[in-house]
Amino acid sequence: MINQRLDGRIAVVTGASKGLGKQMAESLAEAGATVALIARSGDLLEGVREGIISRGGKAFTFVADVSDESQVATVAAEVRRQAGVPDILINNAGINIRKPLHEYTLAEWRQVMSTNVDGPFLCTRAFVPGMMEKKFGRIISIASTMGHVSLPQRAAYSASKFAVLGITKTLALELAPYNITANAISPGPFATEIARVVMDDPVQLADFNRRIPLGRWGKLEEIGALAVYLCSEASGFITGTAIVIDGGWTAQ
After folding, report:
1. What is the CATH number of the domain that holds 32?
2. Are strands 137-142 and 58-63 parallel, antiparallel or unpaired?
3. Is 3 contained in some domain?
4. Among 2, 44, 130, 138, which residue is least crowded by beta carbons within 10 Å?
5. In this structure, is residue 1 part of a structural domain?
6. Which domain holds residue 75?
7. Is residue 4 part of a domain?
8. Closest CA to 27 of 222, 185, 180
9. How many domains would you assign to the chain?
10. CA separation (Å) from 42 to 46, 49, 56, 64, 116?
11. With a threshold of 0.90, does the pTM exceed it?
């Protein structure tokens, strides 16, 4: 069996303070990776770090806004200094503003794009050179089912996630000669803060539940297990694609 452990690997996870990012960071640490946790909330990050360390893992925290070019450059240098040259990058940080397209302000539109598209661009640009030096790398960008289909009031979010899929395909082609793979994970409904607006609305919640053939929302540990696999040696022939984990939503 090909090894799915991550011992000796250094992983960067953005948006690691909660939700899917927190779960993926914890799963990577459990698989043996040293994890560099990046988010805007230092207090929440510290809680994630302490949890990982209490279970025998290794983690560092770095406070930064991934949509800010200077902050990304600074944090990339700090990650390299404190943790080492990363082998893995998970572009997870993301936001959603729900409203009809004609009601968006330009500032709101750009806010979604700056986090969801500029963030992966800036972080990938910052960390890829180290992977190229190592001749090994795993890049995972978190897209969404909304990057394959859409719903009303998701114009900016869907546009940003379609962009993530396009970036992923290009990276796969550019970085293949360096033994670096690039893939996306497209989650369906998971119980995270970004989905709170749906979970708290009985009408929206019932509509979402009707759309899931498996009849349930995803479990956070299922995302963690998928991330570990895509970061491991076992996934070495998978690149340039999106793994949809949505209980069958987009199969309809």
Report:
1. 3.40.50.720
2. unpaired
3. no
4. 2
5. no
6. 10-251
7. no
8. 222
9. 1
10. 6, 10, 21, 9, 20
11. yes
